[in-house]
Structures are given as C-alpha cells and as structure tokens.
Amino acid sequence: MVFSSGKGASGHPLDTFRFCPRCGSSDFRIHDAKAKKCASCGFVYYFNVAAAVACFIRNDRDEVLVARRAYEPARGTLDLPGGFVDCGESVEEAVQREVAEETGLCISEPLYLFSHPNIYPYAGFDVHTLDFFFECRVTSFGALTPADDVDRLTIVRIGELDPSQFGLASVASGVERYLLRECK
Question: Which pLDDT does position 10 carry in this prediction?
C-alpha cells in the first residue's frame, strides 16, 4: 500500500504528523500502513478518509447545474456543487448545506448514486477523501447565487457534459460514471 505524504513523495500517510495529538510527544512512530503510535502514551492514531459530497442538480429538461471553481485546487475548472461533510452531519445534510452555500438553492431528498475515492490536495497536504455523489431533481433553477468557493454557475445539457473540463479527478470520474448511467 503506497500513500502520498502530501510532499509529492510516496510514504506513510501520516509522515507530516510528527507529534502525538494526545500528549504532544515527538516519539510518534509508524505503527502499520494506516496508523502511528505514540511510544510515550500508547495512543494509536489511525489515518481515515474524510467524507465529501458532490451533487448533480438536474431539471426536467435534462440540464445539470455546474460550477466553476474560484480557488485552488483546480481553479477555473468545472466542478459539481459540494464539499466536505462537517462533524455531526449526515452526507444528505451536507448535500443540502453545500448546495445552499454554493448556489442559493434549497434542495430536498438527494438521491445517492455512488461513491469514489479521491485525493484532494489542500495547502500542500493530500486529504484522502471518499466522495459521495448524489442527484437532486429541481423543477426550476430559480435565482442562482454563486458563493463560497464558486466563481460562476452554468446550466448545461447532460449530453454536453465533458468530464475533461472538470479539474478534480474524482469529480471528472464521477461525471464519466454519471454519463454512462444515462446511456443505459
């Protein structure tokens, strides 16, 4: 099992974590492929993925809402409304919150489609995520308000979606998978 350390080199996923988060000891060593253990207090810290959501917001005219990213990573490329799941929040709640924050739309009953593992580069650190993809149906896109980390919102026909225009690998793969579902 090979991980990226966030520095462009392969190594343990917790290479950048040098001190025990429980007692602060620097005697924090590799325990196994996904954990480090503190030799001072015995605490074992497991490297687990962060949960994230992405949403295909679709109307009855076979159109989907896409966002243009305002910030790195992948600034200026297409994206789907979504983001990280907050502590104490379900993935469905995260879809509703993220869509409202980024578009101004209030959605209900997001339909789970599939998930995809991802590595999200953030501030020189690779955040390993599990991205949950959802579809939400709306009757109208109404008054859209790009906000948060979205520069612009665009409505496109499903047949015009091009995975290569999506800058995050996981989202591009998700769009590809979504399009394959549509062809069936």
Answer: 52
